[in-house]
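Below is the data:
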Amino acid sequence: MYSEIVSVDDDQARAECFNVNEKDSKCWKLAIASDGVVFKTDLKLLNKPQGWISGRLTSPKVDIATTADAAKRYTVSIEGANIGIPTISKRYEFSNADQKAKWEKISTALNQSPWTDRREVVIPWGPEAFSYFNKVVAVDKEYDVADKLAAVWRVVLDPNNVPKSYGTSCSTGDFQGFVSSNSMTYSTALPNYDGETMSYDVASPHYKPGGKDYAADAFSGRYDLLLTEAYARCVWGIKDALPKIEVNVFKTDGSVDSSAKVVGGLDASGFFKFSATGFTFSSPKIKIKLTAPPTSGGTPAVTQEAAAPAVKAPAKVAIKSISCVKGKIVKKVSGSNPKCPAGFKKK
């Protein structure tokens, strides 16, 4: 991200301004970078992160110190590659009959912003844009084509970032999970939990910028989720067994997207890592579920350490002793079946 000074009256120059007020002359813009550039941030925080971290990056790596350092700071390291997120920018002129008619359809669908005055409608990425986008793309298919892909790298640390649907039984005051997606919009910043699965609803234009071919020009979706092992086991009620993992992407019509590549597993760093890539839009749903692995009889398998085999005590052997004589020499021989040596006789 970088800043530049622009005139408050220059609408074209301000079109790409990010998070700027109407009368601000300083305009923040997103810097241009190719996808896949890895960034890393190291933070020193007064308080240990709690709950969830959300972001815009791929293949996330999160490392959070469990104890404070000598300066009473907690070290937090977050690493990942930036991702391209679709953006859409449209302009409608009241004096143009076609544009006026298009905006009237959109404003009716959104139930806001009629032709009463000149205004700029900015809908940012995130939950608030999810329903707006689905309503708009339903009445104007031009919104199903992205204008550009903005390269973004962003993380959000919020101590109150805990999904309400999860309850409080698994909230320990520690870091619990990290979630990221390249979707333009999502229904909630964090996945929902319904008692069995974690689900994440996303919505974006189906086509990449300039795209026309439904398959060849489709925008490819990505989703990453990290859960600490302790938190995941608590949420799904799994104790010691290695759980069975299900990761699925469902299309808008509810069918499974077989073209999506899904991965899930427990890694050496103590995180359950899940990812879904290669799925397409407009409004897919990602679902993740952990269950205890079933045995052939349908009962959750429990791995126990095998008992050590019993060791039999050696049988007691009766020992006998005899005296053997050879001239003036006397020998004592002991054993289970003692015999005198050659030349000796039993006394």
